[in-house]
Amino acid sequence: MQVINRAISASPAYDEIKNKRIDSIKRVLSKSKDVSHLGLFNLYSQLYNEYQIYNYDSAFGYAQKMVSESQSMREDSLVGYAKIKEGFVLLSAGLFKETFDLLQNINMNLLSKTEKAEYFAMMARYYYDLADYNNDRFYTPRYNDSGNRYIDSSRILLAPESFEYIYYSGLKNIRTGNYEMALSELKKLTGSYPMSRHEVAVTTSTLSDIYVQKGQTDSAIDLLLIAAIEDIRNSTKETRAIFNLATLLFKKGNAKDASTFIEKAVSDAVFYGARQRKVQLTSILPLIEAEKLNILQNKNQKVVNYAIAVTLSSLLLISLLFIIFRQVKKLQIAKADVTAAHRLQQHINTKLQEANKIKEEYIGYFFSGNSEFYTRIEKFIQSVEVKIADRKLDDIRFLVNNLNLKKGREEVLHDFDRIFLKLFPNFVAEFNSLINNEEQVRLKEGELLNTDLRIFALIRMGIHDTQKIAGILGYSANTINTYKSKIKNKSSVPNETFEEKIMQIRSV
């Protein structure tokens, strides 16, 4: 855990190394005058290799340039090779139909033995990914069977001692349910086989799937930690290792680390442009953030319980007891709001899986707690315990009166603003586009969102109930309605369609 957290912190430095390597190739390209089509093809190929698991748009662009240069040379073999590379990035981005159309138009007779093996492996991955994406009892087995046939075709053309042959053998055994054989094959690679960082990440991530199926979650987590670390150090953005790691940690109750890793997974998916990864993230991200909020509320509840125990020991603290009961009531309302929002998010996720497309309403409700606030709460509990032992009631009164719950709420709302704008970076601009120019929202220095924007941010996330919005933001329902009416009256669209326009704002 310490190693991966250090790797995440150092991620910009690893990316800088990658970018410098890319820039050096681009400088060679810019200085190349009157270079041949083959020379350009080779330079474009080098840039493609750097971008293929780093950034979809750039990789796709250079793959197209490879196709163009090979067509200019009338080298059909190179055209096929370039299209295979183009197919890789299309598939990595989740463009299944485009991948299939492209790969079906490649003339197999013009490919070399190595290129044919790569083509068959690409077709196998296409069907495996399609099987995982559909997750259907009828179609998934058929897609897996097609993938297995292509894997067999690829293995025939590969040397039995090669990394690809051994890895594909293990992969096929996983797909056919022969986990022990798959384990034996893949452990050959992790034993003493020389591998690149990317090959280590791919192999350990695939091995983790076996341990998940066998119910050995701890072993799967160990392997995914290795895979995620190697992906970060290699600047691999097209990856599912860190997403799977966050999912397993969340299921084990480690919401804090799961949140850290899921944020990294979101960042990587957005940077690369992997559509199917974004869909996967919607199934776990809101749950993790809701669990973090629940942990914060549980800590607050402990504080309340200690305060109640102290107030019962003396009639002099009746006024304090009244304040505590009010806090308990607020916490119960907040917990009910979180529960309702969680149910709503589960319903949205179900619709996502059934429709197999990204829905606009996939984010439910998530805030992240503040570690500094946790520390203050823990110190407060320790102080109260000491004062109870010493029976210093006045000191206890002082401690409780200085409990700053308002600041805790502000920190939670700030985290909400940050996460929301990460998913909807154009929200403020598009919101203002619905408002008359002279009435548009102007944020103060240091503000991410204000109350007006936050109300409609919650609505964009699928929370339409005024009472729930009031409970989250700490206002009355009447106040929320007043805010909403004020904004709608300033809008350049009819009041009855304003919220519909808000729901049309797209995420990243």
Notes on the protein architecture:
The structure is a single chain. With 508 residues, this protein is an all-alpha fold. Helix content is 76%, strand content 0%. It has helices at 2-9, 11-31, 37-51, 56-73, 76-92, 96-104, 113-134, 139-156, 163-175, 179-192, 197-213, 217-233, 241-251, 255-272, 275-281, 285-311, 318-355, 371-390, 393-401, 405-423, 427-433, 451-460, 466-473, 477-490, 495-503. Helix 2 (11-31) packs antiparallel against helix 3, helix 5 runs parallel beside helix 7 (113-134) and helix 11 runs antiparallel to helix 12 (217-233). It is globular and about 90 Å long.
Write the layout of secondary structure elements.
Elements: H1 2-9, H2 11-31, H3 37-51, H4 56-73, H5 76-92, H6 96-104, H7 113-134, H8 139-156, H9 163-175, H10 179-192, H11 197-213, H12 217-233, H13 241-251, H14 255-272, H15 275-281, H16 285-311, H17 318-355, H18 371-390, H19 393-401, H20 405-423, H21 427-433, H22 451-460, H23 466-473, H24 477-490, H25 495-503
